[in-house]
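Slide 14.
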Amino acid sequence: MPAQYHCPADRLLAAHEEPPLGAHLVTPRSVYAHHGIYVGRGTVVHYGAYAGGHWCRRPVEEVSLARFAYGRRVWVRPARKQALAGAEIARRARSRLGEDRYRFLSNNCEHFSEWCVNGEQSGEIVQHAVFN
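Slide 15: predicted structure.
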């Protein structure tokens, strides 16, 4: 793949490694990075819009880690110092299951993940992309 869509500080998840509860996960797609929250037991909560080849608007959903990754590598984004605890992050992610208010520029999968982890809905899709 010609580009990487993760931050230099992100840590590559090893094969068969379980992410920490509440981890902010990032996986590349063809022209963007997809984000989600690990909620335990092999599942991730994410905005389903444009994920896994679905080029349509979809709600927040809980899927397997394998389905979230869609055959690609997964990175764990380090939490900020003021980040919430893992169980609270997972609770926040699940609290939005079924939400169907995806907006590419103002309420996307990265905004969702940042809100879960840090309590604020910031997103830096373009700034986080690292192109080789």
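Speaker note: The first helix runs from residue 65 to 69.
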